[in-house]
Design goal:
By secondary structure, this protein is mainly alpha-helical. It contains six helices and four strands; from the N terminus they run αββααβααβα. The strands form two sheets. Strands 1-2 form a two-stranded antiparallel ribbon. The protein has a two-stranded parallel sheet with strand order 3-4.
Length: 196
């Protein structure tokens, strides 16, 4: 409403239906919004995006990575390592595209699970973060910690699917995949680095 779209951001995070009603435009329905959003900017820009509001839950639905290093000059000259990085990025881009194409063509859902030890690890990691947040900051960002576990599971799912696609696993017909311990640990580190 009037440029405030945090309601849509909150709903899209959980793929909840969204209805837009406008005088003259009628009603538009988005049955299961899916939103990927990557932004960069300064610290001062983000509060205005969230309307300076930490109470409505929008803040906890994003992953943030803050870099505080002092900038230094970096040559733009091509090097062997920059060429290798470009090759690696192109390779992973191809894997991601292939994985997406296979999953889009599926007619049945693909279920993703974690082992009991995987869930135990998530719970232990998240409970520690939750308790630390509650104790040290008086719970101001507990929702961020709670959602960090969901973010970690989503990231682990993506990592697992990419790894399986890269290894040649046929994702077109299998019913279930289990997240590996390495993918879970990597995802938890990413999620909680961003939540910290």
């Amino acid at each position: 409403e009037h440029g405030n779209f945090t309601d849509l951001l909150r709903k899209a995070y959980h793929h909840e239906p969204h209805i837009i009603e406008r005088k003259g435009d009628g009603t538009k329905r988005i049955p299961a919004p899916r939103l990927a959003l990557v932004m960069s900017g300064t610290k001062a820009q983000f509060p205005s995006l969230l309307n300076n509001n930490t109470e409505d839950g929008t803040l906890s639905r994003f992953l943030y990575l803050q870099v505080d290093d002092l900038p230094s000059y970096r040559s733009q000259r091509p090097t062997a390592s920059s060429d290798a990085f470009r090759e690696m990025a192109d390779n992973y881009s191809d894997i991601l595209s292939k994985s997406h194409q296979i999953l889009e063509q599926r007619t049945n859902p693909l279920y993703v699970s974690a082992s009991k030890s995987g869930w135990d690890y998530i719970d232990l990691y998240c409970k520690r973060a939750f308790d630390a947040e509650r104790e040290h900051r008086e719970g101001a960002l507990i929702a961020v910690v709670n959602r960090a576990s969901l973010n970690a599971f989503r990231i682990a799912t993506i990592l697992t699917l990419l790894r399986l696609t890269d290894s040649g696993k046929d994702l077109s017909s299998i019913k279930t995949v289990e997240i590996s311990a390495d993918d879970m640990e990597t995802a938890l580190q990413i999620s909680f680095t961003c939540a910290d």
